[in-house]
Amino acid sequence: MIAEAGLAALWLAGALAALQLAMAVIGIARGRDDVAAAVRPVAIVQGVLAALAMALLIKLFLESDMSVKLVVENSHSAKPWLYKFAGAWGNHEGSMLLWVTILGLAGGAVAIFERALPERTLVATLGAQATIALGFYAFLLFSSNPFARLTPAAPDGLGLNPLLQDPGLAFHPPTLYTGYVGLSVAFSFAVGALVTRDVGPGFARAMRPWVLIAWIFLTLGITAGSYWAYYELGWGGWWFWDPVENASLMPWLAATALLHSVTVLATRDGLRAWTIMLAVVAFSMSMIGTFLVRSGILTSVHAFAVDPERGAFILALLAIYIGGALALFAARIGTVRAGTTFDPVSREGGLVANNLLLSVILGIVLIGTLYPIVAASFGVQLSVGPPFFNKAAGPIALALVAVMAVGPLLRWRRDEARAVVGRVALPIAATVVAAVALLFVWPGVLPWAGLSLAAGLAVASVAPLWKRNLRRTPMFTYGMVLAHLGIAVSLAGMASDSAFTRETLVAVRAGEAARVGPYSVTLDGISPVIGENWSALEAQLTATRGDDSTRLHPQLRFFANPPTSTNESAILTALDGQLYTVLGQPDGQGRWQLRLWWKPFVTLIWFGGVLIALGGALSLVGRLRRERRSAVRAAWA
Amino acid sequence: MKRFALWAPLAIFALLFAVVASGLFRPADKVVRSAMVGKPLPDFALPAMVPGKPGLTSASFKGGQPRLLNVFASWCVPCIAEAPHLMRLKTMGIPIDAIAIRDTTPAIAGFLRRNGDPYARIGSDTASRVQLALGSSGVPETFVVDGRGIVVKQIIGDIREDNIGEIVQAVREAR
Q1: Could B9 and A330 be called an inter-chain contact, meaning their C-beta atoms sit closer than 8 Å?
Q2: CATH number of the domain that residue B157 is part of
Q3: Quick check: A226 and A609 in contact, CB under 8 A?
């Protein structure tokens, strides 16, 4: 019954999306305001129905209903409830359902909360949102039905990939998807504005909070995903340039560029066409990411469904949506009046440089990710790895950091080059001091440049607060300061990790010790432990540093359903870094492999990521408050 | 010029689309190409693994008759999965030799009792030395060796139903 109800909710939501699109078209093309007025409520109900379908799927997983094919294939009754719950989206069909649920909810949220946008543009926006949703409902219903029954019902399920059996699964995909799919709102806004030819500061101010929300979630999702991979995979790395990581990075890069160009549009009415373009590109990158992951065209830990038919379906949707939006852009943007112009040395100029550099990095990541596919069409098998990305994108990212340090210290419209030099003197001094100091511990070219620039950026990012009345400084300025500071912190962590990490692989008997960084790690013994749905060999380690000693318990974990083993690393976090321990295989003669890393300041990477997201949140709250205040003022005037 | 430039993003996307679409519909070639193909087997001599069955030397692949060399272990689950397919190849008249990796006599004897024994000879490679010399990184792997000791095909991972055709063909061509 529950599965059928879920399927019905999904069909109804799809039908409402079709209705929403038809009403938006009639409302705008025929000028029928009475029809257009119904678009908002329909969008809300559509979102609610999609969410209902998702909730029912979760219920099926929680109840371990083994008459549902998806549950059988991806769950097991002996699984802890959290993984039953999160397992609902730990598979192709469920994750696509989560995708459209967030799409529907985003449309519903726009329908409820968006009051700044002119009504016609809003209706066109919701029409665009319905068009996207319609395609993905069709995809779910015709080729990826999550509610398909299995007759006869199975006695029990096949289990969930043990790598996914981690609390991270409960929040990483929903967070990331909220970011991914949240960008659909920006896309729909852009399409709506192109339809009504209404691109201007008002439009930009209306779009900005939506972009910010998506961007905050995307930032959190990537940060969390990076930390998850770091401790769960047991390889000691935090970013692998895996195609799927790239798929999440590309929308982030585009959204970051959009976030900055939309500010130019809102404040100075410049970069009209460019902002619209970025809004289209950002969500296109989300969809391309979804396609890359879901089609199985690239092999990756994240790819659940290797199914060319599904790939073809998503590819067709991509062609329609991205191609359609780009064609609309080409046809319409020429008729949008050009915005104002500005001097190269100005805040706008800095933001344009930021946009260009972000776009170049985006291009590099896109090319690196797709190159294996291109090469394969010429019969060459290859994969593009970290060396390419680090070498190609690293220097440009550092240039971007330099621009980021200077940009916020420039004035809008026009600035004096000489005055700018005075303002950036202190950050430059910080960079030089750090650079010289680091010469004594030479960490390698990129980490050296990274650490020096991080120092400069850290100083520069708080510079906008100098000589200001801190209580009257708007909250979004604090947001920017915090986000830029977060980049500096994260960059310092990355550079420090790649320069100063110490790694050792040893084979030790019980009672023997190994040294890594400032720690001495002793293997006290190995004992078996039993978990809810796994058994493990657990090492008792004592990590000693000076007079402090801490016990650590890395595990070699064995899962029965499906039969696999995973490495559960044990991590000791100190103020100045992390000790990362992994238990390897026994050699059969009483010795055990231990893999130990000392990673100085590695935690800064994720701490910085959280700061960036927090900066975004402050900025969001600040903007919303100001909009509301000016709206109230306008109402009284 | 300006109007033309506005269509550039669409053109770039169309190009991207064409590449990806061709990548999606071309039959995927997920086989890792072997560096051993076309090269002679390294010289080795391995002791017998189970009583009553001879050990394995590289010389036994130079008898003029193509043979399969299967690298396996009793502790390897995919090896159990491929066992019936090896039995089928044997009944087709293809001789199969094996190298057992890091294994013990009782374990291998048990494995053969449970899953069938398609092998003419089994050599014991307790330290993976020959395995590494063969350029094999895991178990199971199967090499088709022609009558002169030259590798003509390498299959990484377990033999599946759909590999049987290509193996038989490779053996036939090697004759």
Answers
A1: yes
A2: 3.40.30.10
A3: yes
Q: pTM score, two decimals?
A: 0.80
Tell me the shortest Cα–Cα distance from B130 to chain A, in angstroms. 19
* CB–CB contact A326 B13 (8 Å): yes
**Residue A119 tokens, joined:** 């009504």
| Interface touch A308/B24, C-beta < 8 Å | yes
Q: Compute the distance between CA of residue B64 and CA of residue A584 in angstroms, rounded to an integer.
A: 44
Tell which residue, B22, B5, B69, has the closest CA to residue B41: B69
Burial zone of A309 (CB within 10 Å; 0-12 exposed, 13-18 middle, 19+ buried): exposed
Report the C-alpha dihedral over residues A524, A526, A530, A536, rounded to 10 degrees.
Answer: 120
Tokens 């905050």 label which residue? A216
Taking the CA of residue A500 as centre, how many other CA atoms within 13 Å lie in the half-sphere pointing to its CB? 22
- Shortest alpha-carbon distance between residue A305 and chain B (Å): 13
pLDDT at A301: 45
pLDDT tens-digit map of A251-290: 999 999 999 999 889 888 888 888 999 999 999 999 888 7
Segments forming the whole domain that contains residue B83: 45-174
By C-alpha distance, which of A100, A103, A94 is closest to A138? A100
pLDDT score, position B28: 52
DSSP bridge partners of A521: A514, A543
Residue B84 lies in a domain: yes
Q: Which residues of A touch B2 (CB under 8 A)?
A: 334
Nearest C-alpha neighbor of A257 from the set A282, A286, A221? A282
Residues of A in contact with B6 (CB under 8 A): 273, 329-330, 333-334
Output DSSP code: residue B59.
Answer: G
* Residue showing tokens 């295989």: A585
Residue A307 C-alpha, separation from nearest chain B C-alpha, in angstroms:
10
Q: Which of B31, B2, B3 is nearest to B159 (CA)?
A: B31
Please judge whether B22 and A327 are an interchain contact, meaning their C-beta atoms are less than 8 angstroms apart: no
Distance between CA atoms of residues A627 and A635, nearest Å: 12
Q: What is the pLDDT of residue A79?
A: 80
Torsion angle in degrees (nearest 10) through CA of B73, B75, B79, B83: 90
* Domains: count for chain B: 1
| B21 domain-assigned | no
| B13, B19, B22: residue with CB nearest A323 | B13
Hey, what are B6's tokens?
């506005």
pLDDT (0 to 100) of residue B27: 56
A469 touches chain B (CB under 8 A): no
Q: Write the secondary structure of A93-139 as one string of H (helix), E (strand) and C (coil).
A: HHHHHHHHHHHHHHHHHHHHHCCCCCHHHHHHHHHHHHHHHHHHHHH
* Spatial distance between the Cα atoms of A86 and A88, rounded to a whole number of angstroms: 5
Contacts of B9 in chain A (CB under 8 A): 277, 280-281, 326, 329-330
Query: Strand A577-586 to strand A534-545: parallel, antiparallel, or no bridges (unpaired)?
Result: unpaired
CB contact under 8 A, B17 and A318: yes
Residue numbers in B near A329 (CB within 8 A): 6, 9-10
CA distance A13 to A51: 9
